[in-house]
Structure formats: C-alpha cells, structure tokens
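JOB MANIFEST
job_type = single_chain_structure
chain_count = 1
residues = 74
[input]
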Amino acid sequence: MNKKEKSEKVLQIIGDIKNSSNKDLMLAMDTIQEDFEFTKKIVIDSTHHLDKLELTYNTILKEYQKRTKVNEHR
C-alpha cells in the first residue's frame, strides 16, 4: 500500500471508527503516531532555528546600534 492509499484508508477508518476492525484501528493509530512524531520533530527543529535566528539578529542589532551611536556623536 503506497502512502496515498494508506492515508485514504486511515481517513476511512477515522470516519467509521465504530465499525472498523481492530487491525484497522491499529493501522490508524500507528499512522497517526508516525505523523505525530514527524510533526513534533519539525516543530522542535523549527523552534531551534527560530531561536538561532533571534540570537543572530539581536547580536547584529547590538553591533549596529553600537556603531550608529558612535557616529551620532561626531
């Protein structure tokens, strides 16, 4: 089963949980768990990236402010 077929199957299972087999429920739970872990990793990686961007920006801003303060007093 390819990724698209699997996604469609999981959506069908979610849409009819009460009538889905235990095997289908396990498939849905496994797929959701995989997606959760994948998404969590992306969020964590993005958060680290944002933190680094903010730190870099603030470092550059401080240097810029230091330079422009010096030039304002001339």
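[summary]
The longest helix spans residues 22-72.
Residues 3-72 form one domain.
exit_status = 0
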